[in-house]
User: Fold this.
Amino acid sequence: MVRYQGGSVEAFQEIYLQLAPGVRRYLSHLAGRSEIADDLLQETFLQMHRSRAAYNPAYAVRPWLFGLARNVFLMNRRAARRFAIVHESRQDLPEFPVLPEADRLGSQDEIRKCLANLAPDQAEALLLHHEWGFSFEEIAGMLGISAAAARARASRAMADLRMALNTLQRARV
Amino acid sequence: MRDQPQKPPESLMRAIARDLRPVRPSPQPFHLALRMVPLALLVSSLILLAIGSRADSGKLGPLLTWGASSAQFALAIALVWIAAHESTPAGRLPRQIVYSVAAAASLVVVLVTLITFSTSSGNPILPVPPRINEILRVSPWIMGLACGIGSTVAGGILVLFFSCVFRNAIATRPSVAGALYGAGAGLAINAGWRIACPFSTPWHALGAHGAAIVATVILGARIGRALGNRRLQIGGTHS
Assistant:
């Protein structure tokens, strides 16, 4: 990132290659619609470019960029007032991430369905930690909550997810 | 399900290539807040340089004059530090801290006002001709208006300076970030203004000086929102 701040286009491409896939999936999760994730991804990297002077090397690039992606999504939501549509369309997400921890408990479709039914703030903390590997301190910095609250949200979401998948399994039997 | 790395789209690369001038990395929030100190100190002490400290400062004692103002100034810088954190996508502080410091700042202003009034509530005298002092004694709202407008203007100057420093900020809640540095500006100005203004009555201190702080908070929030909207103009380039 420091090389990129120095004006290196190759450094930008490296950042994009490394981080764009994860950021895209995160945006896809936030928006609940993969068709606007590409637009939001492009907007995120455009904003990163415009705001590259606002980056401080003391912070890790990944949480900073994910935080920026979250800002872009929230501003987009405010601009488009699509909140209701976002939540209505969560049932049929083509690229909703599937947690490795939950993989044994049900089919991918079932896991996606259960994830979509979790409270959005809990699901976000769960995915940021288990899917994208952020520490609870990093999640706290991104979401404006304490690390303990981030841990509690993720843990509650995991418990709810397990319970929902178990219920589905019992219903199948 | 892992996505394969993809090359950036051509349109994005064209936009990047248009402006690749080197930029200086942003300082850490604490250093950013410290950079504001000299100008904040200068603007907040302008009134002291103009009319000097209040006549009853001896009666109030150093703790209630300089000590209370130093505490307010330190809180002002803390608010700017929190605003700098709020403006960093990965560096946000928990909401409880943000709201606690904002509440503490309001409480300090009210407490200092009440203690100052209980210690010295006598006749205020300004270094002006006796006839003007008499007019101000009969119509204290004139002084209220002067203090309100004066400290709002001084606070507004600081808010503008802060918003220049924060112009690259990418806050999730730009209005909150703006309100925080607006509150910082208002509090810093009040720290200097209260040592110069001889009126101790709560209605004056809270009604005029307090209103100026509220005005700078609103101004900061409006500027923060405007800057945020301008920066993240989503939907203009795609639908």
In short: Chain B touches chain A through 51 residues (CB under 8 Å). Chain B has a mean pLDDT of 86. Chain B has one domain: 26-231. Residues 91 and 145 of chain B are 40 Å apart (CA to CA).
